[in-house]
Every structure is written in C-alpha cells, then in structure tokens.
Write a structure and sequence with these properties.
29% of the residues lie in helices and 21% in strands. With 326 residues, the protein is of the alpha+beta class. The longest helix has 18 residues, at 308-325. The chain is globular, with a radius of gyration of 19 Å. It starts with a strand and ends with a helix. The model has no long low-confidence stretch (mean pLDDT 97). The structure holds iron/sulfur cluster. Keywords: FAD, Flavoprotein.
Length: 326
C-alpha cells in the first residue's frame, strides 16, 4: 500500500476543507471498499480524511419522513425500529447486501459511494477507463457476464454494486450534501452517473462535497414491498440482477408503483415507464409481465451477459409478486 497522510477532524467544515483543497485527498468512513482498493493499488489517495468523528450517524423522523445520517451503519439502519416500521424495502435491501460483519462497518454514505466490482477495474495490469482514463475497457471484449445491459457507453459497461441504493432510488430519496459552496439536495436518481465519456466519475458530487444524510419521504407505497436479489450464492455476493418493488394497493388494484433494478447499469436503474404501466391495473402476473416488457425496452447484452435479458424481467416480476403478497 502507498504511504498516505491521515487526518481525523471533528467538524464537518474542517473535513470538507481538507478534501476540497487537495486533489489527492479522500474521505474515509467504514473503509470496507476503499481500504481494499488501496491495498490493491487501484486507488492511491495521498491523504485520508477520516470522518468517523463527525456527528452524522443519527436516524430520525424529519420533514414527514426519515433522515438517515451519512455515518449511520448499514446494520444500525436495518435494525432501527423506525426504519423497520416505515421502510421495510430499505431493510430488505440492506440485509441482502454484503455480510453481517461488513454491514457492521459500512455506512450509508459509503454504501452509496462504493466502486464497481468489475474485475478489470481491480486488476491493475488490465486496461480500464474508470481506473485509468484513456486506457480502454477490458470488459468490452472480455468476460462481461456481470456487466450492464442499460445505459452503458463504449468507454465503460460496469454496473453499480449497491443494494441499498436500488431501494433508495425506488423510494424517491434525496441526498443531502455539504461542500465548499454550501449545502444542496440531490434527488437520489440524479446522484449516480452513467459512464458516458467520463466513467472515472461515479457520482455528481463535486470535489470536497460530503454526504451528510439521506431523506426518505413518507409515502403510501411503502407497505407492499419487495427487494428481490438474484446472486450466485446465498450471501456475501453482488447481485446478478436485483429488483425493488413498492406498491400502493386498493384491494387488488395498483394505485401507485415504484420500481428499480440493480446489477444492470452504472447507476441504480429506476423504471418510471414500467411504473406507469402498473397504475390502475389489477395486481396480476399478466400486468407484471406487461410492466417488465416495458422495463426491458432499450436493453442490450454483450457476449457473456445475454442471460440478463431474461433474468431481469423475471426478477422484476418475482419482486412484484412478492410485494403483492406482502
Ligand atoms: Fe473499467 Fe468500466 Fe471497462 Fe470495467 S467496464 S474495465 S470498470 S471501464
């Protein structure tokens, strides 16, 4: 591992200043992804700004919804009474992620900022535009079975690995950030980026901007929910495909729907057109299949991930069936 400086400020503004003024500085919280990346030489920050002393770990009622502090642990959020009562979809998604040990270290903000698990990104002997812009994409003509079917570019076909973020984009969450220019709120759907020509940028955060919290509004579609994750083993594995479904039902009629897929794009993939298909329709498998067909419009596979073209709609239908039964 490269040598680096280490700072541990106790005030958010000091942390923001430290990262804003130094292009080689990086925030660190749980470190469950960043430390791995540093050990492998994939990321080589020259300064780590440890934010664990900042007062950002509360989980509370706020503005007709829940506010999750950026430093709240994934396990603490999943076990929190308020979250369990009000946002069971988020609980399901959190408990589907990583292992119990990792959830005890990983934070809300860190979960959102974790990097792709594309194997070429981790292998410093291979070309990767995300790790080293301009070197090419090893996955395009390589083993791309875990890669994107939506929203990719010829520069990068990686997927975002977070489960939690798939639930949060479906739940219309908002990200609160503080930075050198002040505070701002970013709709969760606009927080992560598609790769385009700049796959090295995963999010729309500016240098020095610190995630402080995530707001999840109360909504009538938070009772009938399901996070359905398909993976290669029962735990501690990233999604091949996952689906988040949240429904408001009036009897058997769907009044409102929120849908998103994971494991299919460079960002959690919200399915607004498919949501519209569901509204006003009976909650039947035939309706779910119609929505899944719309959800898959524009999908395109690479040599080794064609299976996702079938797996993704089937996963979405399964999530909708489970949500309806809930
Ligand atoms: Fe790198 Fe993205 Fe290509 Fe993977 S898919 S090798 S992360 S550029």
């Amino acid at each position: 591992m490269n040598q680096f400086q280490y700072a541990r400020p106790s005030k958010p503004q000091a942390a923001i200043r430290a990262v804003a003024k130094d292009a080689n500085a990086q925030f660190i919280a749980g470190g469950t992804n960043l430390v791995d990346l540093m050990k492998r030489g994939v990321m080589t920050p020259q300064k780590l700004v440890d934010i664990n002393r900042l007062p950002l770990n509360k989980i509370e009622r706020q503005n007709n919804g829940l506010r999750l502090g950026a430093l709240a642990l994934n396990s603490a959020v999943a076990d929190d009474k308020l979250v369990r009562e009000r946002q069971p979809l988020l609980v399901q998604a959190l408990n589907a992620g990583a292992s119990a040990q990792l959830r005890n270290m990983a934070t809300v903000g860190g979960n959102m900022l974790q990097r792709t698990r594309c194997p070429y990104f981790y292998d410093t002997t291979m070309p990767c535009n995300k790790r080293a812009p301009g070197t090419g994409c090893g996955a395009l003509e390589g083993i791309n079975r875990m890669h994107a079917i939506f929203g990719f570019s010829d520069k990068c076909i990686a997927v975002h690995p977070s489960d939690m973020s798939v639930a949060l984009v479906a739940l219309d969450a908002t990200v609160l950030v503080s930075g050198p220019q002040g505070d701002r709120r970013i709709p969760f759907a606009d927080f992560h980026r598609l790769p385009g020509d700049t796959p090295q940028k995963d999010t729309n955060l500016e240098r020095g901007e610190l995630i402080t919290a995530v707001d999840i509004p109360d909504a009538p579609f938070t009772r009938h929910v399901s996070y359905y994750k398909v993976r290669e083993r029962a735990s501690y594995a990233f999604a091949l495909v996952s689906a988040a479904a949240a429904l408001e039902l009036d009897g058997n009629t769907i009044k409102a729907a929120r849908l998103a897929l994971g494991g299919v794009a460079h960002k959690p993939w919200r399915l607004t057109a498919a949501e519209q298909v569901l509204v006003g329709k009976p909650a039947t498998e035939a309706t779910f299949r119609q929505a899944a067909e719309v959800a898959m419009q524009g999908a395109k596979a690479f040599k080794y991930n064609e299976y996702k073209l079938k797996l993704a709609p089937n996963t979405l239908v399964q999530a909708l069936k489970t949500a309806t039964a809930a």
